[in-house]
Amino acid sequence: MPDTSPRLEVRNLVRRFEGTCVVDDISLSVAPGQVTCLLGPSGCGKSTTLRIIAGVDCQDAGEVLIDGHVVAAPGHFVPPEARGIGLMFQDFALFPHMSVADNIGFGLKATGSERTARVDKLLERVNLSGFGNKAPHMLSGGEQQRVALARALAPRPRIMLMDEPFSGLDNRLRDGIRDATLELLKEEGSAVLLVTHEPDEAMRMADEIALMRKGKIVQRAAPYNIYNQPADRRAAEFFSDVN
Ligand code: ADP
Ligand code: MG
């Protein structure tokens, strides 16, 4: 039987900036092999939620659990590098002095042919076969972003946090890279929390959508259900452009 107990769990998370609650009692969970989309308009608190889960920001209340173990709670903090989390944020940065292949292999423990095989497979998946020896500055913005994606996926993170990772890609490439990313993440059985402000992207990629507004989750449901039975009129309007 597949393991369906949550790999990532967030309970009653609260984060205030200057008295304003930007994350207001957020709870969610993600099982292995599942993609949950945190979907909502700009400024609703998506990135802040992700940053707390990653361990690069701290909550004012609530807790984060990984595999049932608390990694963040009042008075308890497991550092980011000990959480087994892969990150793909909007403002990715490649190591400029390393080749594309070395960037992708950076987080790998494997050496020799095993390492080369993993890097080559990832290069192929992000449509960059043959780019391994190039320097990052020789690549376009979209190509660099795909390298960053491959680098994040390389160590097979148990949890993958992605913050608008496809937003800089042109339309022609985006669907292909989305599909390749999903396929890889599913293969690895990662638990994925994907942040996006685009209903289209959530509909395409999510097993479950958590619709956010002003720091709160207003609805959690499968894409089909949330599209057909939005919780309220504003949710319906938010999805009205999806084709
Ligand atoms: P989203 O990712 O959904 O666009 P964010 O989580 O980035 O939203 O931001 C939520 C709100 O919190 C915004 O109003 C933003 O201006 C505010 N905010 C985020 N980070 C900080 C910070 N470090 N200090 C003060 N306000 C912040
Ligand atoms: Mg954001």
TrEMBL record:
<keyword id="KW-0813">Transport</keyword>
<keyword id="KW-0472">Membrane</keyword>
<keyword id="KW-0410">Iron transport</keyword>
<keyword id="KW-1003">Cell membrane</keyword>
<dbReference type="GO" id="GO:0005524">
    <property type="term" value="F:ATP binding"/>
</dbReference>
<protein>
    <submittedName>
        <fullName>Iron(III) transport system ATP-binding protein</fullName>
    </submittedName>
</protein>
<keyword id="KW-0997">Cell inner membrane</keyword>
<feature type="domain" description="ABC transporter">
    <location>
        <begin position="8"/>
        <end position="239"/>
    </location>
</feature>
<keyword id="KW-0547">Nucleotide-binding</keyword>
<keyword id="KW-0408">Iron</keyword>
<keyword id="KW-0406">Ion transport</keyword>
<keyword id="KW-0067">ATP-binding</keyword>
<keyword id="KW-1278">Translocase</keyword>
